[in-house]
Amino acid sequence: MTTAQIGSLNSDILRNLGVIAEDESALRRVAKYLRKIAKQISADSTLMSKEEFFARVDEAKKGATVSMQPDEDLTAFLRRQGYDL
After folding, report:
1. What is the spatial distance between Cα 47 and Cα 41, in angstroms, rounded to a whole number?
2. DSSP secondary-structure letter at 68?
3. Alpha-carbon gap, residue 27 to 38, rounded angstroms
4. What is the pTM for the complete model shown?
5. Cα(28)–Cα(32) distance, rounded to whole angstroms?
């Protein structure tokens, strides 16, 4: 997300909070929902942005890979990789 998009999103959120602030019941619901979202974000250690995810995928593609041969079963593949089964 670009800086301009984040700024626009922040403005939209603040504008809507101004409307919600006039209704105490709605404000309580929003506060409860925000606490729930904040808790989920801080609790999820695997959470990453789209850019971080694709950077990790690109990094993984740089490493060595192995493939199964046509008509090769899993046991033969693992033995070929050096596992003693």
Report:
1. 7
2. P
3. 16
4. 0.43
5. 6
